[in-house]
Amino acid sequence: MSEFDLYREAKDHYELLIPDRLEGLILLNLYKKYRKEDFTEEKINDSIDKVYQDLGRSSQRNEYERNNAILLKF
Question: Tell me, what's the pLDDT at 9?
Answer without folding.
Answer: 83
